[in-house]
Amino acid sequence: MKILVVFWNLVKDSIDATTHGTRLYHLWMAILTITMLIGMYCYSIQIEHGLSVTGMNDRVSWGLYISNFTFLVGVAAAAVMLVMPTYILKDIDFKRAVLIGEGLAVAALIMCLAFVIVDMGGPGVLWHMLPVVGVFNFPNSMLTWDVIVLNGYLFINITVPMYILFRHYQGKEAKPNVYIPGALLSVFWAVGIHLVTAFLYQGLQARPFWNNALLGPRFLASAFAAGPALIILVLAIIRKTTAFNIEDKTIKKLSMVVTVAAQINLIMLVSELFKEFYAPTHHSESAYYLFFGLDGKEALLPWIHTSIFMNVVSTIMLTFHKLRNNFYVLYTACILLFIAIWIEKGFGLIVPGFIPGPYGKIMEYQPTGIEIGVTLGIWAMGAFIFTILAKTAILIETGKLRFIKKEEKAINEVEA
After folding, report:
1. Do 312 and 378 lie in a common domain?
2. Are residues 218 and 325 in the same domain?
3. What is the CATH number of the domain that holds 298?
4. Integer Cα distance of 287 and 280 in angstroms
5. 327-345 and 64-77 helices cross at what angle (nearest 10)?
6. Considering only CA atoms, which of 84, 93, 243, 102 is closest in space to residue 163?
7. Pair 62, 158 in one domain
8. Would the pTM of this model clear 0.70, i.e. be above it?
9. What angle (nearest 5°) sits at the alpha carbon of residue 43, between those of residues 39 and 49?
10. Quick one: which of 2, 65, 336, 374 has the fewest CB in 10 Å?
11. Each residue's pLDDT tens digit, 172-193
12. Are 223 and 354 members of one domain?
């Protein structure tokens, strides 16, 4: 009963804390709310008219929604780069940042699930993916494995930080024997969610562009580059706008992770290019369409060329020690790398897998305004959720949000 009382107070205190803030904070939340409302309006049009309002068709059945889903799975998996050194290796430099990383993982996973829902047309068809009720087809379908690992990883990333914050809210230390098993499991689960997503594409034999043994490892390399790059940018904003102290060495250690992952990702890209173009076959047509265009169709050329340019420039900036230690250069490199991998994992991976079609026909894909509106709404929802989680966690970790017993509260009111 006492636990429920404390939890209820935590909920009330969190709501109170997240509804109060500076003018900049309220402006930020207002922008996110307006963007979510625009996204909801666009989604209502999609529900009314179906997926015909999107740029997808019977030739290209995965577009902007699944592109963002694939990318965000990697962002969610990147939280392991903070979890493992903090909880497993006892690296105190990451201790203050780990809860921020896990909050980012929760927001990313919720966005992943939202993109799956909108890509299915509407929430009314979700019952097909439920065990027993729907056609779950476990364990044969890779899609069912994806559903399991994503929801499982979301559960872990909610419960472990929740337990730690709940204990700190009461002024107590979290017990390692309670949260360490969950943290250890999350390390393996984080790798699993991205590998399973990669296997989902690799298992589609009719799409030779995805039949690549490097797809899984490259998914991980790009995830451990883009995810920590976003975490660095978020930590930079947090330490600039709040009293939550993030030390320079924490960001510098994360920048090393980003650098190594970006270099590996670039090497794998070169390896794929060599495989596709040194001895090309008819299975290389999707790659030709992506990088050079095919039969006069060149819709993806500006996207992939921009991605490669940003990827190379950001990796070079990160590789040199003096440049990487300059935080302004580091932040610029992280922004470039994040955008580059977003393009690469989206328009550079998902769309060309469908072009040309099985009979050689080329039907290009361009997202519509409805798709873009829904996508921006989901990203705004993720940012909104993360902002609430991060603000609550910061207030608890800095000691500004604590459970006060009735007796203490009465004394404080008398003294006031």
Report:
1. no
2. yes
3. 1.20.1630.10
4. 10
5. 130
6. 102
7. yes
8. yes
9. 150
10. 2
11. 888 888 888 888 888 888 888 8
12. yes
